[in-house]
Write a structure and sequence with these properties.
This protein is mainly alpha-helical. The chain is built from 8 helices and 6 strands. It is elongated, with a radius of gyration of 18 Å.
Length: 206
């Protein structure tokens, strides 16, 4: 789950962007990688057009592809004027631990497929900017490792994995994969993230 911080706009033809919060120029994710990551997230987070309570972090109001909505004001910013803070409060007060579909009747506001994609892409852009601050060597890592780090930054943030980051720095991919475990998430997601990291290993020639 990810709470969107601040988006940033394209600088131009050099495929970089200026992030207003961090005041740095950063490389943008290539479109195919952006799309692949969005599809990857959707497998594990789902694509939900209404507000619901996240089952991994009970009590967190969420929508889209794992986008956390922390306040009623944030809900209006995400859904537009058709939503109100009362909608958010109705979901927030509901019983946690149910399937996302169980919360659909509480609100009438919905996100379009295009809005879901745009929201996820904005969250991914924030993740990428934060990653470049935390992991300056990120652009030099293989695409699989970059995607794993994006997923870890999306939930719960790579700074929570110092042993993993150190193992990556020295090229110990097996240790990095083991240290990427997130006990609060499903085994399938942990296994997939570990495999992305292990994809950086040189093949063993017998």
């Amino acid at each position: 789950m990810f709470a969107h911080d601040e988006t940033f706009g394209m600088d131009g033809a050099d495929n970089t962007a200026q992030h207003p919060k961090y005041n740095i120029s950063i490389p943008m994710l290539p479109d195919p990688q952006q799309r692949d990551f969005r599809n990857h997230l959707a497998v594990f987070e789902g694509r939900i057009s209404w507000m619901y309570l996240d089952d991994a972090v009970p009590g967190n109001v969420t929508a889209g592809i794992g986008h956390m909505i922390p306040t009623g004001v944030a809900a209006v910013m995400v859904f537009g004027p058709e939503s109100t803070a009362i909608d958010w409060l109705a979901v927030k007060a509901a019983s946690p631990g149910m399937a996302a579909s169980a919360y659909a009747h509480l609100t009438t506001c919905r996100l379009s497929p295009e809005a879901i994609d745009a929201l996820c892409d904005a969250d991914t852009a924030d993740c990428w900017a934060r990653l470049l601050r935390s992991v300056p060597t990120l652009p030099g890592y293989p695409p699989g490792v970059q995607q794993a780090l994006l997923d870890l930054e999306y939930d719960p943030g790579v700074t929570k994995f110092p042993k993993m980051l150190h193992a990556m720095e020295v090229g110990d991919w097996a240790t990095a994969a083991r240290e990427s475990l997130r006990p609060q998430l499903a085994k399938s997601r942990n296994d997939y993230t570990a495999q992305l990291i292990l994809s950086a290993q040189e093949p063993v020639i017998s």
